[in-house]
Amino acid sequence: MNSITDLVRSFGATLLNLMHGALCWWFNVKKLADIQKAENHRAAIIHSIPLLLLLSLQLNIVQYGLLGQSLLVTIEFWALFVGIAGSLLIRLLEPDWNNPGYLSVTGLCSVIVLITIYLGQGTTIHSHTYFILFAILTPVVVPSSKKVALCTQVLILVGLFALFETFPVKPDPRLEKLSPSFLHILRLLMHLHIAVAGVAMVMISEAASRDLRHKLLHQATTDALTGLPNRRAFDFALTTEFNARTKQHLCLALIDIDFFKRINDQYGHDAGDTALQHVSNLLKSGIRTTDLCARLGGEEFAILMRRTTLPDALSLLERLRENIERTPWQVGSQSVEITISIGIAKLNRGMLEKDLTEYADSAMYKAKNSGRNKVVVYAAET
């Protein structure tokens, strides 16, 4: 009878373990993939915690299964509940980094470790070492601005480890009957998992830090309204071209939207923003991959054309001008024609960086003062 009961218990526990693993890993891995696609790496850090937690739970469950633990089914139910609850908790906490989701998740993890210790595992195989892992990872993941929460969390976790290290909890009697070599293997597995989990979290955190730096750099060099590179990015690209200059051709075009002040006055500044986006989209779609189109500020744009002769640059700029003229800007129910004036200068030997910019700017103003809606080459090139 006992063997049948144990068999049923093991079968039920196995089914629960499969359900727990399938549901929780599917929830978390799918969500983690969605987060990565959205490039929200800070949320990815937080979301990785339940994955490590679920792995540790499954390792603990395997250990109990090897022991034939009578409380196995109870532990499985706890694992299933905590896995789903943890997933829901992360979904609530991850959108706002100011809400320190990691603190809540590690608090939940700590409760689970306490449960597994008091349900019979005790401290014999060093489960309480998880508290040190959580304490080490807290400063890595939690923003330094959360000093009080961070310090409190670390002190609690270190205190829990010290408590169990000083006052060990006796395990289930059946665990004590295992051979010393088998207990040693279980301890090694526990320490190995903790080490792997720690390294994985640090690597994730480092990758997230790099991605955050790249994101900040992108924000610092991108115009928020149009999505084009801004003046800082343009100046850097132009300086780079001069520093690494070879005999390859280089042309610079400066572009100004005609009568843009009239657009703002007549339709409003919000509509004026959509006009800037309209023009920037047409410019982006009309340039080549080797060209750099940037918004310098206001209604002024620049195109840096690498490895481009003056005739090829003129041909490209005429196509852009004609396309913008032919593509009306939609404001409400109205279709409004927008035109641009372009000045272009070609890099010649002995020319300085500021010279190229000044010559292109001079040609642009000549285009505006001679009727607008045209491309004008700097006079030295005519």
What does this structure look like?
The chain is α+β, with helices and mostly antiparallel strands. It has 2 domains: 2-220, no CATH class; 231-381, Reverse transcriptase/Diguanylate cyclase domain (Alpha-Beta Plaits). It is built from 13 helices and 7 strands. It has helices at 2-37, 41-67, 72-93, 101-121, 130-141, 147-166, 173-176, 180-220, 231-243, 260-267, 269-286, 310-326, 353-369; strands spanning 250-257, 291-297, 300-306, 329-331, 334-336, 340-346, 375-377. A 5-stranded mixed sheet has the order 2-3-1-6-7, sandwiched between helices. The protein has a two-stranded antiparallel sheet with strand order 4-5.
Could you give a short account of the major beta sheet?
5 strands, mixed
Radius of gyration: 32 Å
Largest beta sheet: what is the strand line-up?
2-3-1-6-7
Order of helices and strands: HHHHHHHHHEHHEEHEEEHE
Give the N-terminus to C-terminus distance in angstroms: 103 Å
Instruction: Report the principal-axis shape.
Output: elongated
Low-pLDDT segments: 66-80, 93-100
Q: Strand fraction band?
A: 5-15%
The number of distinct structural domains comes to 2
Let me know the average pLDDT: 76
Q: What is the SS-derived class?
A: alpha+beta
Q: How many E strands?
A: 7
Helix content: 55-70%
Specify the number of helices.
13
Give a quick summary of the entry.
This protein has 382 residues and is of the alpha+beta class. It has 13 helices and 7 strands. Helix 10 packs across helix 11.
